[in-house]
Amino acid sequence: MPRSPALRFRLLLDSDHALGPGKADLLETIAATGSITAAGRGMRMSYKRAWQLADELNRSFASPLIVTNKGGKRGGGAVLTPTGEQVLAVYRAIEAKAQKAFAAEMRILARLLAEKE
Nearest Cα to 65, choosing from 28, 20, 32, 10? Predict the structure, then answer.
């Protein structure tokens, strides 16, 4: 099977904060599952790591990207705020534009990669 190069972006927001594919995927999975715990499980990361990343995301921006509800009879949950939805959409738009902008160069690299047996 031929190998193909891929672009993966890590945006440095400032000297202490970054947004990359893992955090973007976590936001997307929280939106889909309604839970930080379930999102982490679905991404095969520990409960602790998922919550750490969610906290980092919330501390990186002026307003939170994720809000949580405490557990109870129905259990807790998490949703993206409008800011969270906007940050995710902007990150995905950057990815898409970069894929399109560098498509020719990526095809050249794909042709130059050695086949692995």
Answer: 28
Tokens 């991404």 map to which residue?
Answer: 43
Bridge-based pairing state of the strands 77-80 and 66-69: antiparallel
- Is the Cβ–Cβ distance between 7 and 95 less than 8 Å? yes
pLDDT at 75 over 90: no
Residue-wise pLDDT for 5-21, tens only, equals 889 989 999 999 999 99
Structure-derived torsion over alpha carbons of residues 20, 24, 29, 35, reported in degrees to the nearest 10: 90
CA distance 25 to 29: 6
Output the pTM of the full model.
0.86
Which of 48, 61, 78 lies closest to 19 in space, CA to CA? 61
Given a cut of 80, whether residue 74 has pLDDT beyond it is no
**Structural domains in the chain?**
19-112 (1.10.10.10)
- Mean predicted confidence (pLDDT) in 32-43: 94
